[in-house]
Write a structure and sequence with these properties.
This protein has 318 residues and is an all-alpha fold. It has twelve helices and no strands. It is found in: Golgi apparatus, trans-Golgi network.
Length: 318
């Protein structure tokens, strides 16, 4: 067989099934390209170089392929149980994966609902936080208002039962005066809570005024005792000067009564003291006056003038 004939056989045996020269869909240049590509194959080149009969070589290759295919079929038959088991496992895996898919869809749905709930809780938290801040902002003022308005039992007991000379009474009197002023201020703002404590404050105020009035009048009357050193109780009254402030702020006519009594008492005391002082001074002056026996050219009329002045002083109204 000549080389030309082998070349033609090779050209016919390679990929001729894919080429239809009678068809109008392929052009001759495309056929040449395919032939050229087959001729450039390394196996074809090696076969042509050795002068191998390509048709016989093709048959051998096809036989080997058939044998390999039969062997593969036998291997598949031997492994049929394993393949069936593998198929069953794959089917089970598909079932499990399908269940997992449904579970994941349900989980996704649950996450969506949880996300909505979290958003709702976040909004509620923000609203509660705002309410908390608002309550904290008014808590201090409200707490102070309640403390200012409430009348503790301690105050009531000290105002009613404790003597006015005790320190506890004076402290509670300061607190009572503060609460009375605070209640007046809030009454101008139409605070309803003032009506709840109005009667109690009024009763405590009247009780405190009565006790203070009695105490101050007793102190003032103690000045009238004969031979008493009025300066000591007078200085002692300075410790209770807030009593007069309380009376001036809450019951001015009682404060005026106490002041008038004090002025009347002290004016009489000072008048009595000055009268005694003047009488003793005049007596001393009369006893020590020089006479004509002590001095030369003394005028006796001077003694008469002094007696006349003393008589006029004594007869003058208080």
């Amino acid at each position: 067989m000549s080389a030309g004939t082998e070349l033609e056989d090779v050209a016919l045996n390679f990929n001729l099934g894919d080429l239809d020269l009678t068809s109008e869909d392929f052009l001759l240049d495309e056929v040449d390209i395919h032939i050229q590509q087959n001729l450039e194959d390394d196996i074809v080149k090696e076969a042509l170089r050795k002068g191998v009969d390509l048709r016989q070589y093709s048959k051998e290759i096809q036989k080997e392929l058939q044998e390999v295919e039969n062997a593969s079929i036998q291997d598949y038959i031997k492994e049929s149980q394993n393949i069936a088991s593998l198929h069953k496992q794959i089917a089970d895996c598909d079932t499990i994966l399908e269940r997992m898919e449904h579970m994941l869809h349900g989980f996704q749905s649950d996450l969506s609902s949880i996300s909505s709930e979290i958003q709702s809780l976040q909004e509620q938290s923000v609203a509660m936080n705002i309410k908390l801040k608002n309550r904290q902002s008014i808590r201090g003022e409200l707490s102070q208002f309640v403390d200012e308005m409430v009348i503790p039992e301690t105050m009531i007991n000290h105002i009613l039962q404790t003597p006015v000379t005790e320190r506890e009474f004076l402290e509670q009197l300061h607190e009572l005066n503060h609460k009375i002023n605070f209640a007046k201020e809030q009454s101008f703002k139409d605070a309803r809570s003032c009506q709840d404590v109005k009667d109690i404050l009024e009763k405590l105020k009247l009780k405190a005024i009565a006790k203070i009035r009695e105490f101050l009048l007793q102190k003032i009357n103690s000045f009238k005792k004969p031979m008493s050193n009025y300066q000591i109780p007078q200085n002692a009254m300075l410790k209770f000067r807030f009593f007069n402030e309380f009376l001036m702020a809450n019951e001015r006519h009682v404060a005026k009564e106490v002041r008038d009594e004090y002025l009347d008492t002290m004016s009489k005391i000072y008048n009595s003291y000055f009268k005694g002082y003047i009488s003793r001074l005049m007596k001393l002056q009369f006893e020590e006056v020089a006479t004509k026996d002590d001095l030369m050219a003394v005028d006796d009329s001077a003694k008469k003038d002094i007696l006349l002045k003393y008589a006029q002083t004594s007869s003058s109204p208080d």
